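If it is no trouble, might I ask you for a protein's amino acid sequence along with its backbone structure tokens?
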Amino acid sequence: MLFVCFFVFNCMSKDISTASDQESVELDKSKQYLTVLGIAQDAGYPHIDCFKDCCQVFYDGNESKKLVSCLGLVDLKGNKKYMFDATPNFTEQSRYLTEYHLDNGHIIDGIFLTHAHIGHYTGLMYLGFEALGAEKVPVYMMPRMRQYIENNGPWSQLVSYNNIDIHKMKNDSVMSLDSGIQITPLVVPHRDEFSETVGFRIQGSKKAALFIPDIDKWERWQLDIVEEVKKVDYAFLDASFFKDGELDRDMSRIPHPFTTETTTLFENETIETKNKVIFIHFNHSNPTIRKSHHLKDSILNLGFKFAKQGDVFNL
């Protein structure tokens, strides 16, 4: 049975809502769970210099701020908390984890990075000398990502000042955390200017999740996304754009699977499989980033779901 969880956090009420009408569940305090800390594409919502209707509804007071795509992993049994990606909203997102999920005296016990695009790693700056001055925060990254961080300022200073402690990951190689949690990075095709790009398979004591916030197109991946979704209980998938022509730009230069393409791939699958797909990483132009829209309703009616800031998923 599903339960809706409500919390009060006045100073962030427009940023992260913990009430969910989709997938929040009653927490089993002896186990682990994921929580959605952000749902927007790298530049957040509202978008910089956007005066179109998609963002104007925010300034008119009819839509809430959306933080950049990020998942939190909370292990209450092991007394640890982790993040998947360090976003420009790292301050709000780490505070939220502490206030409402786990205050263990650490800002974070580990960060897993997907790649070197601005919405996915630049939050590391808040751990640095000019900000927190953190001490050896574990940050998990792939080889090219590690090379980029170690050899380019200002990120290299995080290493030389021991603000972060880099842990190298290997494609399709399981990393075991406390309390039996297993994390597996999976390389995916993307615009890899500075680093490779990965998604993650996250295995808890009873349930598993897939997190792929960025990928070019599903058909370019060596794995079959439909089969990968069937292996897990939740699949947080790239929904940057709803359909082609959404931007006044050549969208072939910024390839992502359109929401309509993903739903077409799953159109012949069971409702059980469709229910596992949870869209995330919405561009400001994607109408389904809004709390209510007729195109969002059409996708929900097919059985798919949309990530909402504050949602909780037991593992």
Notes: The chain has one domain: 29-314. The two ends are 15 Å apart (CA to CA).
